[in-house]
Design a protein that fits this description.
Blueprint (H helix, E strand, L loop, with lengths): L4 E2 L2 E2 L6 E7 L4 E8 L2 H18 L4 H17 L1 H12 L3 H19 L1 H4 L4 E6 L2 E9 L2 E5 L7 H12 L3 E5 L6 H12 L7 E3 L4 H9 L3 E7 L2 H13 L3 E5 L4 E5 L5 H13 L9 E7 L3 H11 L5 E2 L14 H16 L3 E4 L6 E2 L10 E4 L6 H4 L6 E7 L2 H10 L2 E2 L1 E5 L3 H10 L4 E4 L15 E2 L2 E2 L6 H7 L1 E9 L17
Parallel strand pairs: 7-8, 7-10, 8-9, 10-11, 12-13, 12-20, 13-18, 14-16, 17-18, 20-21
Antiparallel strand pairs: 1-2, 3-4, 5-6, 6-24, 11-23, 15-17, 19-22
The protein binds nicotinamide-adenine-dinucleotide (NAD).
Nicotinamide-adenine-dinucleotide binds next to helix 8.
């Protein structure tokens, strides 16, 4: 059973509500997780508020010492953490290891906090008047994360937030809560004082309490677009700073001059890796004439060889979906695609599975002849379903992408540098790949989509993360210097 982590220890109360946590590869209930009531969230926020009174004044050296220790512990325990992710999420071991690696990069970025918080200084802005800026913490920050990256997404936020002197209440997904508990324990081992990081589990009840709580100053949210919009609107109406990252429908445009084997490999990896449960997964390939037939054939011929099975088995390349309900929803989109007239090239409902029949399985599905009016194009399916849209020209391909309400990631495959350069300029999407199908920015840039993929001004992590977690203060100061006859207390005059 998983319970909350508040003020440096496990919560000792009795939960009124709990949720089941599944092993997606066997379909069985592996454990349960306590759901926080508003009162439990209040306890966590109170602990975080108390801790902030001292953590805000911890020296930069003290903060970075904790971060460096945490980095070492995370690195030393990465295999165990990856196994926990696979057990509850279902993604294969190599995907889980990749997730932890990307998380580590964000910790490493935050280790540099003394450098990152350097402000500006202008000597003699006016006669003997100096002006300088300082960046201060906000207070208690709420982090609300989705199921699909149970370690990485919390670590997009927590290291930067605490490095900036804030304290945190993390509300991870109730579907795979163990990774955040593992991380909380590592933070404690690293010497993070009690109350600086708290973890509450649960659902809308816990989220709503964080959104309305007067002492929570900022919210970092990642999840589906309807909930992201709700979190942004509710949080900002309550006077909080909010960054809410939402869903996606990521396109990969393939121009006729592209290396089609490279493009097909990329489409398979980016479309079906982690069973399509990535916010940066490619879900639409836009094939520009005349390469459609050849590209579809190359993608299709790769799919029977994709081994779908328990993520713990070394040969598995794609695991199960996270829950039975989600698998059924994704399957219903395959049915809808057929009914709407898309050409079903590979049917994932019939793919061979190496695993327990009760697991939440679905093989990779490929549709051709998909059009923007179809539900399989319109909606974020978040599963192993790849749609091919065909367009006669570069311009019409770009039109399709730019008309889409989401704008998280996009990629272009081409050997034409001029076309790629034009694409990166014209495309209305926050993260662009050139012959790179999943262009997740490294930790020293920031991650964020456009349009309905992000609500708020700040992208996640990197420089924008540090900006989000700090308030800037500008000091204008004058020290009297008797040697310059500086005893006049009047307002400084400009020379
Ligand atoms: P979700 O929106 O269902 O849940 C996200 C979080 O919100 C969870 O902690 C959940 O408990 C909470 N929540 C759920 N319903 C709520 C409600 N009605 N009110 C308040 N809180 C609620 O998302 P998910 O299914 O866990 O994750 C998948 C989604 O996240 C996909 O849409 C994916 O694209 C998106 N995602 C986006 C990014 C990004 O960076 N843009 C990254 C990862 C995942």
């Amino acid at each position: 059973m998983t319970t909350h982590w508040i003020d440096g220890k496990l919560w000792e109360g009795t939960a009124e509500r709990r949720g089941d946590v599944y092993d997606p590869a066997t379909g069985s209930v592996a454990s349960t997780v306590d759901f926080a009531s508003a009162d439990v969230v209040d306890e966590a926020v109170a602990a975080a508020s108390r801790a902030w009174q001292t953590w805000r004044d911890a020296s930069l050296a003290a903060r970075s010492t904790v971060l460096f220790r945490f980095r070492e512990l995370l690195n030393a325990n990465k295999t165990e953490l990856a196994a926990l992710i696979t057990a509850e999420h279902g993604k294969v071991a190599s995907d889980a290891a990749g997730e932890v690696q990307r998380a580590l990069e964000n910790v490493e970025y935050a280790c540099g906090i003394p450098q990152l918080l350097k402000g500006g200084f202008s000597e003699n802005a006016s006669t003997r008047v100096d002006v300088y800026s300082i960046q201060q913490s906000l207070g208690v920050v709420g982090v609300i994360s989705p199921f699909n990256f149970p370690a990485m997404v919390p670590l997009w936020f927590v290291p930067n937030a605490i490095a900036c002197g804030n304290t945190v209440v993390l509300k991870p997904s109730e579907k795979d809560p163990s990774a955040s508990m593992f991380l909380a324990d590592l933070w404690a081992q690293a010497g993070l004082p009690a109350g600086v990081l708290n973890v509450v589990h649960g659902d809308k009840v816990a989220v709503d309490r964080l959104l309305e709580h007067r002492d929570v100053k900022a919210i970092s949210f990642v999840g589906s677009t309807p909930i992201a919009r709700y979190v942004y609107e509710t949080g900002t109406a309550a006077g909080k700073r909010v960054q809410a990252l939402g869903g996606a429908k990521n396109h990969m445009v393939v121009l006729p001059d592209a290396d089609l084997d490279l493009a097909a490999d990329a489409a398979v990896n980016a479309g079906f890796g982690s069973a399509g449960e990535r916010c940066m997964a490619v879900s639409v390939v836009v094939a520009v004439d005349p390469i459609g037939d050849e590209l579809v054939a190359k993608i299709a011929e790769r799919l029977p060889g994709l081994s779908v099975g328990d993520g713990r088995k070394p040969d598995s390349e794609m695991g199960p979906l996270v829950t039975a309900a989600h698998r059924d929803k994704v399957t219903s989109y395959v049915d809808a695609g057929v009914a709407e007239g898309a050409r079903l090239v590979v049917d994932g409902r019939e793919h061979a599975i190496d695993g327990d029949t009760a697991g939440f399985w679905l093989g990779p599905t490929l549709f051709d002849g998909v059009e923007p009016g179809m539900s399989i194009y319109r909606d974020e399916i978040f599963g192993p379903v790849l749609s091919v849209v065909r367009r006669p020209s570069y311009e019409e391909a770009v039109e399709v992408v730019n008309a889409n309400p989401y704008g998280n990631g996009v990629a272009i495959f081409t050997n034409d540098g001029g076309a790629a350069r034009r694409f990166q300029h014209e495309i209305e999407v926050g993260m662009v790949g050139v012959n790179v199908p999943i262009p997740v920015p490294v930790a020293y840039y920031s991650f964020g989509g456009w349009k309905q993929s992000l609500f708020g001004d700040s992208h996640a992590y990197g420089p924008e993360g540090v900006h989000f977690y700090t308030r800037t203060k500008v000091v204008t100061g004058r020290w009297l210097d008797p040697s310059h006859g500086g005893i006049n207390l009047g307002f400084p005059q400009n020379d």
